[in-house]
Amino acid sequence: MQQTPPALVPNVSISVAPMVGCTDRYFRRLLREITRETTLYTEMAVAAGVVRNPTLLNFDAEERPLILQLAGDKPDELRRAAKLAEARGFDGLNLNFGCPSKAATAGGYGACMMQKPKSAVRAFAAVQEASRLPVSVKCRLGIQENSLSHQDESQDFFAFIEALQQAGCTRFILHARKAWLKGLSPRANRTRPPLNYDLVFAAAQEFPTADFILNGGLTSPEQGLAVARQHCAGVMLGRAVWNNPWCLAQADELIHPHSKPRATPLPQDEILLQMIALSEAALAEGARVPSVLRGLTRMWRARRGAAEWRARLATIATEQARAQSKTSLASLRLLVERQLLLEPPQKLSLQA
Ligand SMILES: Cc1cc2nc3c(=O)[nH]c(=O)nc-3n(C[C@H](O)[C@H](O)[C@H](O)COP(=O)(O)O)c2cc1C
Fold it and tell me: Whose CA is nearest to atom 28 of ligand 1?
């Protein structure tokens, strides 16, 4: 069968996964220097926490399109959090029914909601009614106690999707593996349960009026779209972006293959300079040094000067920790500028 190139997929969605400890405001802002059109997600925010402290919802308009991911099982808290989010200007809401952490399970939210579809539907309905924002769901392919317990692959999962679809959910982001709720850390829960893309594709066939976004183990937007193309409305990437943000270099063109690309993509080094300026501004506003530097550390890989880049970032981090003084990123700026003299400017490329 002849294959359609991914670039021809109409209205394809490419998004960056919600990741606690990674996709904070600073990292999202840095990503926006590389891609304008991908959809970004916040880290998971527990509804009760948002209600107590609405400043958790602060973001920069430049980060949009931006979806707030909420977790919770209490309709009242979810309703209040959704209203706050709408007022704050998010582009959509996403409900987390996939987090397998002990804290989530003990709190009754996250992946364990897949075991109680009625609560999941009530949570969805509460958020849906409380705001005019589109509401999507992010979940696993089901729940298993552990690697030894066997359950029917699809029955419970399809029933879960059907219940939510009947409640009005039209977009499902599927992390294409089950969650094992006993004996695995959240980290191991992202690698040990096997990926099952076929079940995602089967769901897309079973529920043709809903959009399904494939997530889990994808290495780049191009590779993800090649896998998901015939079945899904798009792809979501997590660790691939965290490990190498430049993998989004061509994402905007993949999303809008027929429109004229925005002004010539900036050379990487210019983007790095922009990012340094943003980081300086964030630190001047009192942002925490580790959050700001986390994004920058991932921006220079496999290039001459990468080791020096890492060393300087490490120094800045320690200086700050010791002296509690205002940090200057000027030395990084000098490094990039020197690099610009040594190497001709590079356009954004996947080989970064
Ligand atoms: C550090 C880290 C934190 C995560 N935090 C969240 C989260 O807050 N909410 C969520 O739905 N998934 C979370 N995830 C799961 C990702 O969104 C994604 O589903 C998972 O990593 C699989 O996608 P990937 O293989 O592209 O990374 C997290 C993953 C990582 C690596």
Answer: 19
